[in-house]
Amino acid sequence: MHVVRSREQARRARAGLGSVGFVPTMGFLHDGHLSLVEVAGRGHDAVAVSIFVNPTQFGPGEDFAAYPRDLDRDLAVLESAGVDLVWVPDVADIYPRGAATRVTVDGPIASVLEGASRPGHFDGVATVVTILLGVLAPTGLVLGAKDAQQVTVLRSVVRDLGLDVELIVGPTWREPDGLAMSSRNIYLTEPERAAAPVLRRALAEAEARYAAGLRDAALMRSVVRELVRAEPLAELDYVSVADPDTLAELEWIDDTTQLVDPERKGRGAALVSLAARFGRARLLDNVTLGA
Ligand code: PAF
Questions:
Q1: Residue nearest to atom 2 of ligand 1 (CA)
Q2: For atom 5 of ligand 1, which residue has the closest CA?
Q3: Is 121 labeled as catalytic in the residue annotation?
Q4: Which residues have any ligand 1 atom within 6 Å of their CB?
């Protein structure tokens, strides 16, 4: 496994690898990341992973300094997973002195939901991922479904900038009680950890109601909202029932959209997503209905 620091080293190490599936991460890896590594290995000659806690996607007062880091453990885990290349840049490797270029994503896909709670977050994500892709030139970019809005934003970056990479989405990986795996789960106290699976239960209820025929999006939102609000340790930020492509809030969940527009096939009729704070941890989860 090549572990490299600078852009030049990364470029050189990548050059000998053939087709590459690439998993960008901020480290403190868990089984969800490893499942993405596995997805990246399918159909590619090699797997590359980056580990970089990207300062530009954190707002003032957010957890950039506190974000959990354990590079030695991450590298050991990636080595056992058979990863070929790990790029661990410093801030100066990604944002050299004088760097003045940023990728800005306009419109609702970047300004609603996470974008509303974390202004500028997706510009930071779009900028760093564009730089990582520019240096590594991977064949496939593998992202986790848990960060659904990030997937939507990066899909639009890849399309708008004409980047030559296939975007591949890996499934959300869960603890046995349903909690979506996240590096930020480490912030949860014991009672908060016990309470957090309410997010998955609320989304499972949305799936059950959808299967039973519920299509009124406002009603769906209120079903999910009430379940989360019943948990005293959860401070709900938002519940959204939106178009999976535009993230526009829906009035009605229309199962026929995918029939009309084959481009949307497999992306579902509605994305139900939510965010809630449990003490220091702000957790996200989502489910796609009608995929
Ligand atoms: O999902 C993440 O961990 C980050 O947002 C990413 C894609 C690695 C960019 O910093």
A1: 25
A2: 125
A3: no
A4: 24-26, 54, 57, 125, 128-129, 147, 150
pLDDT tens track for 178-190? 999 999 999 999 9
* pLDDT at site 265: 66
pLDDT for 166 equals 98
Cβ-contact 15, 43 below 8 angstroms: no
Pocket test of ligand 1: the residue of 36, 49, 54 to mutate, having most ligand atoms within 8 Å of its CB, is: 54
The ligand 1 atom nearest the CA atom of 57: 10
Q: Which amino acid, 122?
A: F
Distances in whole angstroms, Cα of residue 252 to Cα of each of 11, 217, 268, 284: 48, 5, 13, 23
Q: What is the per-residue pLDDT for 98? A: 86
What is the whole-number distance in angstroms between the Cα of residue 219 and the centre of ligand 1?
Answer: 32
Q: What is the pTM of this model?
A: 0.95
Q: What's the first-to-final CA gap in the chain, in angstroms?
A: 37
Task: Write down all domains in the chain, each with its CATH number in brackets.
Answer: 2-170 (3.40.50.620), 183-289 (3.30.1300.10)
Return all residues near 274 (Cβ < 8 A) that are at least 6 apart: 199, 202, 203, 224, 228, 236, 237, 238, 239, 240, 284, 285, 286
Please give the pLDDT value at position 86: 98
Nearest CA to ligand 1 atom 1: 25
Write down the catalytic residue from 2, 33, 44, 121.
33
Locate 175 and state its tokens. 């603890």
> Which residue reads 């980047």 in tokens?
163
Q: Which two tokens stand for residue 262?
A: 């084959």
